[in-house]
Design brief:
mainly alpha; 13 helices
Length: about 325
């Protein structure tokens, strides 16, 4: 007599190992990052060195922090085109307050961050109260922030900064590589955001609002309050990125951040966060940021023109968005 069949078969995703593998949407960016690393490692002897890895982290430090705020907004099915210009305005405000007004550097940094949070507040207020599309609202505030930055700075770079503003650009040695304190702060912010989204009620509310705002409202979630909080929290991220930009370059640059909005959106989408909202991971965004940094660094080491680097980034984001669209339709 044959033995009875088991009541249930193990899921293919467990592979009989007793634990579930991450979904393909989470594994895909990691596989892409590893594949890119292996490819560029075969093209340049310098690519796989610890020093080059630390350089990649320094290069993506500012965009990486901006992408945290961008992820929170995209999780709610919104988008923020003003992030780069908000960051530039914050950096100009904090540096000019410190240099021209002689303000205490820590207070000047706080003022710069308050400006970026204010931009987030304006974006959130227009999205929630007037129900304007986030794309239109942030396109408008992007242009306003750019104009205010140029007018206030008179399109001049701010120099002669106090040493305190350059702290996060300082380096320390770890093995054969040199890292900045700013990269440590960036990685720490990703961990904190991951814990916030995973383990707190407000974090879970962000996913709920992005997935279905009407259902979230009917369950008692204050959707407008969640959206306001998300845009203001994103503004705080842009303020921190302002300080990182100042620390990395040693100046307040009114021309900074002009492509950071597209770079941050690219990183978020490459990391697997859906533009339709409600699905994604902040750690996926970190992987997406690293993918962009690895491609640009690797192509630079290969001697490829920066024009082709932009071309490759554009192809990557189109592929990622197309995958997101097909997955959404299938769902």
């Amino acid at each position: 007599m044959s033995s009875p069949l088991p009541k249930s078969l193990p899921s293919p995703s467990t592979l009989g190992l007793g634990f579930a593998l991450p979904p393909l949407s989470a594994l895909g960016p990691v596989i892409a990052l590893l594949a890119a690393g292996l490819f560029f490692g075969t093209q340049s002897d310098r690519f796989l060195s610890g020093q080059n890895f630390s350089l990649i982290l320094q290069q993506v430090m500012v965009v990486g922090i901006i992408a945290i705020g961008q992820t929170l907004i995209i999780l709610t099915a919104g988008i923020d085109l003003s992030c780069g210009m908000a960051m530039a305005l914050g950096s100009v405000v904090m540096t000019k307050f410190a240099v021209d007004l002689g303000m205490n550097p820590y207070l000047a940094v706080l003022c710069g961050m308050l400006v970026t949070v204010l931009i987030g507040f304006i974006n959130g207020a227009l999205v929630t109260s007037i129900k304007l599309p986030a794309f239109i609202v942030t396109l408008g505030t992007m242009n306003i922030a750019f104009a205010v930055t140029q007018l206030y700075s008179q399109a001049q770079t701010v120099t002669g900064l106090p040493d305190a503003m350059g702290f996060f650009g300082n380096t320390f040695q770890l093995g054969a590589a040199t890292f900045t304190y700013g990269t440590v702060l960036m990685l720490g912010l990703y961990v904190l955001t991951w814990l916030f989204l995973r383990d707190t009620a407000p974090g879970r509310h962000i996913y709920a609002v992005g997935n279905n705002p009407e259902s979230a409202r009917l369950t008692g979630i204050a959707t407008n309050r969640v959206l306001m909080g998300v845009y203001m929290l994103a503004g705080l991220c842009y303020g921190i990125a302002s300080l990182m930009s100042v620390a990395r370059m040693g100046v307040g640059d009114p021309q900074a951040g002009q492509t950071d909005n597209l770079d941050s959106i690219t990183a978020v989408v490459l990391g697997g966060t859906s533009l339709f909202g409600g699905r994604g991971s902040i750690m996926g965004t970190l992987v997406g940021v690293l993918i962009v940094g690895v491609f640009r660094n690797g192509l630079t080491l290969m001697g490829v023109s920066s024009v082709y680097q932009i071309l490759v980034t554009g192809v990557l984001v189109i592929l990622a968005v197309a995958t997101d669209q097909l997955t959404h339709k299938k769902g």
